[in-house]
Design brief:
single chain; alpha/beta; Rossmann fold; Arc Repressor Mutant, subunit A; globular; 5-stranded parallel β-sheet; 5-stranded antiparallel β-sheet; 2 domains
């Protein structure tokens, strides 16, 4: 299922309203999300299957995808991986799966945030706004942000494609949130960054471990010994520091 504005409205929408894709097979839940997001000036397209949104991503990329994990044709975790390969949009998981393992898996696969059903409509809007605000904070301004490739320790990050190339030439496609954390490090190497700075948000709960999950994944890729990290160092009581020289091109 897909709903969209006529082609004549598309240009206006692009100029003024963030585009949100809702991937949800429960039509009543999808309608609630679409209605509340429309009320808060977002443009929304709704898809009932993973296949439908994947087809749509071939022609237009959204600012954010809201993904249900329990889709009829593909597991939501796999869909998130597919979306990350096709787009650098934000990802919000909305699901009835409340187990910690599902939340951790969603974050490890690149989700920016996670909401468990049933949810308050205003909470959904707040989470969407928070993700878009964080992405805007990490994606605009600065000389380094105008360049596409970051080179460090033989590695190369393609910021436009969220692709990390290892010194041996092996490519890794990063989830959106994981790539944002790495880019925050690369833009400010050899500086102590707080969890709030890495997340692009001031009001992080002390119990929110999503940054730690993403840093753990980056360490598994970048460190010779993730248990004794020398690239992404923990500065106890302060945050983290990326200890490497970075060149941009």
């Amino acid at each position: 299922m897909s709903t969209s504005l006529p082609a004549s409205s598309s240009t206006t929408r692009k100029a003024h309203k963030p585009l949100i894709y809702v991937v949800e097979d429960d039509s009543s839940v999808a309608q609630i999300m679409q209605r509340i997001l429309n009320e808060f000036d977002f443009h929304v397209e709704v898809f009932g299957t993973a296949a439908a949104v994947i087809r749509r991503l071939q022609s237009e990329r959204p600012d954010l995808c809201i993904v249900d994990l329990g889709l009829p044709d593909m597991d939501g975790i796999e869909l998130m991986s597919r979306i990350a390969r096709l787009s650098s949009c934000g990802l919000l998981v909305v699901t009835g799966r409340g187990h910690t393992i599902d939340r951790v898996m969603g974050l490890e696969m690149g989700a920016d945030d996670y909401v468990v059903k049933p949810f308050e409509p205003r909470e959904l809007v707040a989470r969407v706004r928070s993700i878009l605000r964080r992405r805007a904070a990490t994606g605009g301004g600065g000389a380094a942000r105008q360049q596409r490739f970051a080179h460090f320790l033989g590695w190369t990050l393609d910021c436009a494609a969220n692709q990390l190339r290892a010194p041996d030439g092996e490519d890794h496609v990063l989830g959106t949130a994981e790539a944002q954390v790495l880019r925050a490090f690369l833009e400010r190497p050899n500086q102590i960054l707080t969890r709030e700075q890495l997340f692009g948000q001031r009001d992080i709960s002390p119990l929110d471990r999503s940054i730690d999950v993403r840093i753990s994944r980056l360490r598994r890729k970048l460190e010779a010994d993730p248990q004794q990290p020398k690239v992404i160092k923990t500065v106890y009581g302060s945050g983290y520091m990326f200890s490497a020289m970075v060149e941009w091109s």
